[in-house]
């Protein structure tokens, strides 16, 4: 059986046996449960607690606690029966371990939530690359960042980008579209043929923004000439490439540089540079999304390490985004908040997950089998799920 499913069943069974365990699960929410029936049952028990159900007042747990919880949950989900609730009670190994079972549920929810938002970011980035836009990817990146910080508070840890040991770089991007390559060739031709055109892009365009290594290294040659205050033309670019060993190792050829220098050369370097960095932004967003998803699907990563890894994977996107804002004349994104001490709620959540509460030893009273046929509809015939 899936350990996450067993954890969801165990924490629900523990609360059904001892509703007082809810006092130590304040950091757990219905949305953290994967199965709809489990979400509904946990939400129902929280509702009964808020309504001061008699089961939370005395030492004995009445049978009405289970039946009322099932009835309340049945208002929001179909197929939940008293029989399944009693099977949860019987399947709970140790009710006093409810905080630990709840932590397992929260861990699964964190991995699942990050995976879902990483998929949305990847889809938005791919759609933007087709439309020639960036707004969808930037919005989903903001949403993912906010989700990561909210999850870190739920877990009781500080959201800080960090690269776990043994991690790999961002996944390789797929082959660029021909239109992207054309924009890059056009820009390089303009930068070679138009004196002073580097001034329009040098402050925000980087070699890593180009989709191919050859184009990025050629732009690096142009940047070196510009930095030293030397003239830029087809001969000086060829000489710089040779000095860097790019002709000897086959990264660039004389024909490639000559073809670019013999190109049209008439265009707006600023506008062409924006096309290049726009493609770089959507490409980086897709790569960051794949890295976050890969981390979220790694079950060996604890939630704290997963959140740190995900924030680190979004770092390259933040860098391209800041330069994109500069390119279009907008304002840079606000700086990340400074590190601060964990709030009291975070400390409480972290401690509560490791502090089991002694269960009230109440003799279990199984429900009497009903002689009347059940009228409650059920969509599953499995014993371990409604």
Helix content: 55-70%
Distance between the termini: 15 Å
Beta strands, count:
0
Q: Compute the number of helices.
A: 14
Order of helices and strands: HHHHHHHHHHHHHH
Dominant shape: rod-shaped
Kindly provide the radius of gyration, computed on alpha-carbon positions and rounded to a whole number of angstroms.
29 Å
Task: Kindly list the characteristics that best describe this protein.
mainly alpha; 386 residues; single chain; 56% helix; 14 helices; rod-shaped
Structure description:
- By secondary structure, this protein is mostly helical.
- The chain is 56% helix and 0% strand.
- The protein has helices at residues 3-17, 36-50, 64-73, 82-91, 98-131, 135-155, 178-193, 213-227, 234-243, 254-261, 269-296, 303-313, 315-327, 344-352.
- The longest helix has 34 residues, at 98-131.
- It starts with a helix and ends in a 34-residue tail after the last helix.
Sequence-ordered SSE layout with sheet pairings:
Layout: H1 3-17, H2 36-50, H3 64-73, H4 82-91, H5 98-131, H6 135-155, H7 178-193, H8 213-227, H9 234-243, H10 254-261, H11 269-296, H12 303-313, H13 315-327, H14 344-352
């Amino acid at each position: 059986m899936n350990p996450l499913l067993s954890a969801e069943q165990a924490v629900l069974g523990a609360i059904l046996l001892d509703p007082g365990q809810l006092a130590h699960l304040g950091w757990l929410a219905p949305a953290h449960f994967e199965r709809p029936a489990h979400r509904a049952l946990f939400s129902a028990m929280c509702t009964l607690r808020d309504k001061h159900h008699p089961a939370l007042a005395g030492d004995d747990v009445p049978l009405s606690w289970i039946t009322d919880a099932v009835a309340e949950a049945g208002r929001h989900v179909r197929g939940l029966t008293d029989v399944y609730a009693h099977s949860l009670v019987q399947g709970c190994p140790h009710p006093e371990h409810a905080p630990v079972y709840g932590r397992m549920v929260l861990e699964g929810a964190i991995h699942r939530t990050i995976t879902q938002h990483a998929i949305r970011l990847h889809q938005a980035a791919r759609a933007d690359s087709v439309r020639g836009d960036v707004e969808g990817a930037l919005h989903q990146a903001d949403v993912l960042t906010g989700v990561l910080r909210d999850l870190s508070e739920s877990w009781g840890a500080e959201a800080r980008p960090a690269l776990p040991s043994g991690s790999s770089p961002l996944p390789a991007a797929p082959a660029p579209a021909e239109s992207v390559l054309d924009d890059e060739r056009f820009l390089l031709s303009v930068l070679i043929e138009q004196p002073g055109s580097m001034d329009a892009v040098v402050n925000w365009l980087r070699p890593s923004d180009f989709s191919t290594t050859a184009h990025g290294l050629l732009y690096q040659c142009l940047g070196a000439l510009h930095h030293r205050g030397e003239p830029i033309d087809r001969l000086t670019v060829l000489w710089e490439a040779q000095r860097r060993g790019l002709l000897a190792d086959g990264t660039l050829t004389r024909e490639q540089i000559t073809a670019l220098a013999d190109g049209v050369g008439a265009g707006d370097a600023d506008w062409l540079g924006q096309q290049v960095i726009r493609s770089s932004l959507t490409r980086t967003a897709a790569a960051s999304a794949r890295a976050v998803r890969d981390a979220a699907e790694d079950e060996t990563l604890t939630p704290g390490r997963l959140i740190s890894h995900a924030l680190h994977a979004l770092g390259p996107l933040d860098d391209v985004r800041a330069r994109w804002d500069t390119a279009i004349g907008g304002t840079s994104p606000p700086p990340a908040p400074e590190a601060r001490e964990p709030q009291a709620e975070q400390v409480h959540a972290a401690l509560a997950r490791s502090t089991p509460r002694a269960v009230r030893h109440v003799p279990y009273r199984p429900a009497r089998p009903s002689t009347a046929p059940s009228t409650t509809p059920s969509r599953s015939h499995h014993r371990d799920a409604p």
